[in-house]
Every structure is written in C-alpha cells, then in structure tokens.
From TrEMBL:
This is 3-isopropylmalate dehydratase small subunit. The keyword Coiled coil does not apply. It catalyses: (2R,3S)-3-isopropylmalate = (2S)-2-isopropylmalate. Heterodimer of LeuC and LeuD. Residues 1-123 form the Aconitase A/isopropylmalate dehydratase small subunit swivel domain. GO terms for molecular function: 3-isopropylmalate dehydratase activity. GO terms for biological process: L-leucine biosynthetic process. InterPro entries: 3-IsopropMal_deHydase_ssu, Aconitase/3IPM_dehydase_swvl, AconitaseA/IPMdHydase_ssu_swvl, IPMI_Swivel, LeuD. GO terms for cellular component: 3-isopropylmalate dehydratase complex. Its EC number is 4.2.1.33. It comes from Chryseobacterium defluvii. Catalyzes the isomerization between 2-isopropylmalate and 3-isopropylmalate, via the formation of 2-isopropylmaleate. It is an enzyme of class 4 (lyase).
Length: 202
C-alpha cells in the first residue's frame, strides 16, 4: 500500500447522506477477488445511465470541474453490507481520503485495512467543506496523518485515528507488512525467552 503522511489535494463533493456500500459498488460487480479494476464501477448506477450505460453528466465524478484524491461525502458514509469491495473501489479510483461526519464501523475498518483514510469531522465543518469545494473546485484540503488534522479554508479540526492504523498508514503497511517490520524484534524476543526458559530448567 502507498504511504499516507500528508495529503494535499482538491476534493470531490458528494453531499448525499446514508451512502451505502451497494451504491458505492453494486453487488453485480463483486465477482472478482482481485482488488484492481473496481474503480471502473465506483458509484456505477450514479455515474452511468442504467439502460444506456452512457455517462450521467449530472453526476459529480463526470464533471470535469471536480478532481482530486479526497472525497467529501454526507453523513453516515459506508452503511449497509460489510463488503470490503467498497474500500477497494474507492482506492482503485484514486481516492486516498474520505471525509464525512460519520462512518459505518465496518466500512471504517475495511477502509483503514486497505490504505484509505476515513476522516470524521463535525457536521458544521463538513457543511463548510462541502459548500467551499462545490463553489470553488480549485480549493484544496490538507490532511496531516501524523498530526491527525484536516485543514480547509483557514480552519482546522483534529480527527481520531487508532495508533496502530496510524503507523500502518504512514508506512504503507497492511497487517502482514507490519508483522514483517517487527521480524527482528520478534526473533530477539524469542531468543531471550528461550534463554530464560533454559536457565530455569538448568
């Protein structure tokens, strides 16, 4: 996974509440077990007309004014089923951060496990960001993972982040990578424990 330390980017506003995982990535596109390619069908039923498969010009991802590595969405993002593919589709599309005032717990865990940072902000700050980005698409958001802060238009808030997941995000680790990074420490502990055990025996 890529390292997330400081993300400074324009953002894409999606002021819709209760976006569930089936809206993020419809169930009919879950056949693959490879994480790659899911971005093509991110918000599929909103991005494309169902009957013609033509791009929907009214949907924000099809609007050339908006771009960036940060998605700003309405309250209760990622509710619904537990499908990990929702996080896969967002990262495969190119998002590194999702900002909302509330995330479903399972989605939040899946996101962090796949290098996608869910940033929870107050409802008031979310409203300011959504309005600011919508009216000024060129404006940027700065997310500092180490400081656990998000800044926009001269205002900042801090967000919660599990200390273990913070280490993983900043180093580009998944759970296995983290264990591998501790290989020497684990070996040293095993040797120490073995010596202490042998001393007790003899």
């Amino acid at each position: 996974m890529q390292k997330l330390i400081i993300i400074k980017s324009r953002a894409i506003p999606l002021p819709v509440e209760n976006i569930d995982t089936d809206q993020i990535i419809p169930a009919r596109f879950l056949k693959s077990i490879d994480k790659k390619g899911f971005g093509n069908n991110l918000f599929r039923d909103w991005r494309y007309h169902v009957h013609t498969n033509e791009p929907n010009p009214d949907f924000v991802l099809n609007n050339p004014k908006y771009s960036g590595e940060i998605l700003v969405a309405g309250n209760n993002f990622g509710c619904g089923s537990s499908r990990e593919h929702a996080a896969w589709s967002l990262t495969d599309y190119g998002f590194k951060v999702v900002v909302s005032s509330f995330f479903a717990d399972i989605f939040k865990g899946n996101a962090l496990n796949n290098g996608l940072l869910p940033v929870k902000v107050s409802e008031g700050f979310l409203k300011e960001i959504l309005e600011g980005v919508t009216n000024s698409p060129e404006s940027e958001i700065v997310v500092d993972v180490e400081q656990q802060s998000i800044s926009f238009n001269g205002k900042s808030e801090n967000f919660e982040l599990d200390s273990y997941k913070k280490i993983c995000l900043m180093n580009g680790y998944d759970d296995i990578d983290f264990l591998i990074s501790k290989k020497q420490a684990i070996q040293n502990f095993e040797l120490k424990t073995q010596k202490e055990y042998e001393q007790k025996l003899f």
